[in-house]
């Protein structure tokens, strides 16, 4: 059976379809998913444009009720949807369920935000005139999402877009269409009017490009690689469309001599290897002071050795497979690059065989590395981390900030002085003290600086900046 796209309120087949393969068991085909062509994308955008006037000015209670219904169904089905997610993406079942719950909480949050929208009124510099600032929706928004969070990232783009009165056309990554398709079914069932929400699965080079270049798409929100992000930004700039990009990271976790060793090791293990390291917030650089270095490396390698790498759905599995052959090749290639650069592979990096054929890779840790090495400057996006030894806090901060990226930055220390200084001086959008660099709350801003992000923040109330435009009204009451 082929799962269909949702266009103009109807489920439609595409000219083509693609199989969704389970990375934990490549013999397991989850299903086939339609691939839209350019004409179908144009149809979805036209339907969204036609639906926008009524949706953006319609009763906000109806909007809030629909988003709450979406949240309720996601939460009620968290086990089943979490299992589907784990099956198509390869993160473990508990991680999959956790991600589904995050998606439900996001819809719940934005159901509330619908009725909390407000403007601002201030005094005019000209006597007798009222000045007010209000926010209005952008119009049709195009959402392009990656494979590593197949329900949470769509949720944190769709929920605010709809809450603030926009119409949505979403394109999920081809590798993981099932979770977004299930979410689209839920949104459709919640009674969102025809054209307000469309799902167009298919290739980035066809569906994604058409959305980016479409004159009726007012704004594009994208999460994915730096190269694709830059290409999308250029396309949007050429037609002056609003754009928001969330891209890579090379996130440092600083471990000072006074850190609690167990906390630091747990932060590193979680941040670097959970979700198979396939998180833009992953702690890929472990910047460790010399006094704690050896005990930290010993304790971390012991925990890595004990980590159960297996089928995402196997009981007790703690780390699932890499998403596909091409990402696995990229990971293995960087392991070779690291060796070639003179780094010491302290542990891991071997391919693993499990009961089912999948892309299983041992977590890998490099030591004796230097921050200038490619393995410390380029995003690998797999279970590969490096230790960079430093003499003191000042050097640790310099190394942490010496990267083209700036998404998340962490420090493990017992010192309030260093923690406070790090919070102020880390060049990143998110800073963590005695916590992993990955794993964030759903109701506060998410995003980074430098090469990690472009445009305004996602999530929480800050999402309004992207999904609305400000209008300043002047009135002379007569
Ligand atoms: N920051 C993050 O969260 C993520 C970062 N990455 C990084 O990117 C690398 C490659 O992953 P990959 O999945 O190829 O990332 P991409 O940036 O290629 O994909 C992200 C999304 O963009 C779409 N897309 C691809 N090309 C275009 C285009 N020309 N115009 C519009 N949309 C497009 C993709 O579609 P489709 O896939 O269907 O072709 C997908 O939906 C990873 O190894 C990792 O380093 C990847 C995922 C998430
Ligand atoms: O760390 C998280 O919880 C979110 C990470 C993320 O959004 C990403 O990798 O794209």
What's the arrangement of secondary structure elements?
Blueprint: E1 2-3, E2 5-7, E3 10-12, E4 16-22, E5 25-35, H1 38-57, H2 60-76, H3 78-89, H4 93-114, E6 120-123, E7 130-137, E8 140-144, H5 152-163, E9 167-171, H6 177-189, E10 197-199, H7 204-213, E11 219-223, H8 226-238, E12 242-246, E13 252-255, H9 261-273, E14 285-289, H10 290-306, H11 325-340, E15 344-347, E16 364-367, H12 374-377, E17 384-390, H13 393-401, E18 408-412, H14 416-425, E19 430-433, E20 453-454, H15 464-467, E21 468-475
Parallel strand pairs: 1-5, 8-9, 8-11, 9-10, 11-12, 13-14, 13-18, 14-17, 16-17, 18-19
Antiparallel strand pairs: 2-3, 4-5, 6-7, 7-21, 12-20, 15-16
Bound molecules: NADPH dihydro-nicotinamide-adenine-dinucleotide phosphate (NDP) and 2-oxoglutaric acid.
NADPH dihydro-nicotinamide-adenine-dinucleotide phosphate binds at residues 144-148, 171, 173-174, 203-205, 208-209, 212, 223-225, 228, 231-232, 246-248, 280, 327, 330, 379, 381.
Family: Belongs to the aldehyde dehydrogenase family.
Organism: Pelagibius litoralis
Protein name: Aldehyde dehydrogenase family protein
């Amino acid at each position: 059976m082929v799962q269909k796209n949702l266009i103009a309120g109807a489920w439609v087949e595409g000219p083509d379809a693609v199989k969704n393969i389970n990375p934990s068991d490549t013999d397991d085909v989850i299903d086939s998913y339609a691939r839209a062509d350019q004409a179908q994308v144009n149809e979805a955008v036209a339907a969204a444009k036609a639906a926008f006037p009524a949706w953006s000015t319609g009763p906000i209670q109806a909007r809030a009720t629909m988003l709450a219904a979406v949240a309720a169904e996601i939460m009620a089905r968290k086990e089943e949807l979490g299992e589907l997610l784990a099956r198509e993406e390869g993160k473990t079942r508990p991680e999959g369920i956790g991600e589904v719950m995050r998606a439900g909480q996001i819809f719940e949050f934005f159901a509330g935000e619908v009725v909390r929208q407000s403007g601002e009124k201030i005094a005019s510099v000209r006597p007798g005139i009222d000045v007010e600032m209000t926010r209005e929706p952008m119009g049709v928004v195009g959402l392009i999402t990656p494979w590593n969070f197949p329900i949470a990232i769509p949720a944190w783009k769709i929920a605010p877009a709809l809450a603030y009165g926009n119409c949505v056309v979403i394109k999920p990554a081809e590798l993981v269409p099932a979770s977004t398709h299930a979410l689209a079914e839920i949104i459709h069932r919640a009674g969102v009017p025809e054209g307000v929400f469309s799902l167009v699965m298919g290739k980035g080079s066809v569906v994604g490009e058409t959305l980016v270049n479409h004159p009726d798409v007012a704004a594009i929100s994208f999460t994915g690689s730096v190269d694709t992000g830059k290409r999308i930004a250029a396309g949007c700039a050429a037609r002056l469309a609003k754009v928001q990009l969330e891209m890579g990271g090379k996130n440092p976790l600083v471990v000072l001599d006074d850190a609690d060793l167990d906390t630091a090791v747990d932060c590193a293990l979680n941040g670097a290897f959970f979700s198979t390291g396939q998180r833009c917030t992953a702690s890929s650089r472990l910047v460790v002071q010399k006094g704690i270095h050896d005990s930290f490396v010993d304790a971390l390698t012991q925990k890595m050795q004990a980590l159960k790498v297996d089928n995402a759905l196997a009981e007790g599995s703690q780390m699932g497979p890499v998403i596909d052959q091409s990402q696995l090749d990229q990971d293995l290639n960087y392991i070779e690059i690291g060796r070639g650069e003179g780094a010491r592979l302290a542990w891991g990096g071997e391919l693993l065989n499990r009961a089912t054929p999948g892309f299983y890779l041992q977590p890998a840790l490099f030591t004796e590395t230097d921050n200038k090495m490619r393995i410390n400057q380029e995003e690998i996006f797999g279970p590969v981390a490096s230790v960079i030894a430093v003499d003191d806090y000042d050097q640790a901060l310099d190394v942490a900030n010496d990267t083209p990226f700036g998404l998340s930055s962490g420090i493990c220390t017992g010192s309030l002085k260093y923690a406070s200084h790090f919070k102020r001086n880390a060049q990143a959008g998110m800073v963590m003290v005695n916590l992993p660099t990955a794993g964030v709350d759903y109701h506060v801003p998410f995003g980074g600086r430098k090469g990690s992000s472009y445009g305004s923040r996602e999530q929480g109330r800050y999402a309004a900046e992207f999904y609305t435009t400000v209008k300043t009204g002047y009135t002379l009451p007569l």
